[in-house]
Amino acid sequence: MKFNKTGQVLMYGLIFGLFGSLITYLAISYTSGREFSQIGQEALYLIKASNKAEQALFYIDQSAKYSVQQTIYDLAQKGGFESPKCGDYFGYSLWNTKTKKIDECSPDYKENFKSAFSGNLDEYLPNHPEVYIPLNNYNLQLKNQLEIIGYAISDLEIPIGELGAEIEQFEISEKDGLQ
Known about the structure:
Elements: H1 5-31, H2 41-77, E1 88-89, E2 92-93, H3 102-105, H4 109-124, E3 138-143, E4 147-152
Antiparallel strand pairs: 1-2, 3-4
Helix pairs in contact: 2-4
C-alpha cells in the first residue's frame, strides 16, 4: 500500500498543532487564576466608602457644634482669655491693673477663640469609630461675629473595598468629564 507523503506531513503537523494548543490552553488557564468579583461589587465598595465619608463629615460637623458651645463657655469662665495677660484675682481675669490700661490687657477674642476651639475640637475627633480624622487640621475664619468657617488642611482618607485587598489607584481629572 502506498501513502501520499504530503498527507503524512499534514497529519503529523495537525497532531503537533493540537498538542501544542492543548499545552498552551492549560498553561494559560492555570496561571491566570484571577477570580472575578460579582457584577457591581466595586460600585458597592464606592457607595459604602461614600457613606463612611458622609458619616465622618457629619461627625465633624456635630463635633464642631459642641466644641463651639464648650469654647464659648470656657472663655466666658476665664473672662475672654485663654491665659490672662494681666494676671488674675481669685480666679478672675483682670482686664486692667494700676500699671496697665484696658487696651493693653483686653483679650484678643478671635485668637483666643481659635486656640480654645481647636483644643476642644481635637478632643472629639479621635473618638470617631471608623475613620481617622487628623488633629489640628482646620484653618478657622470668624466672620460677622456669628459665622465660623473651617477649612481642612488635609483630606480625609477613606479606604475603598475590603480590608487587605489590593486597590487600584487612579486619578480623575476635569477632562474625564467630571466637574
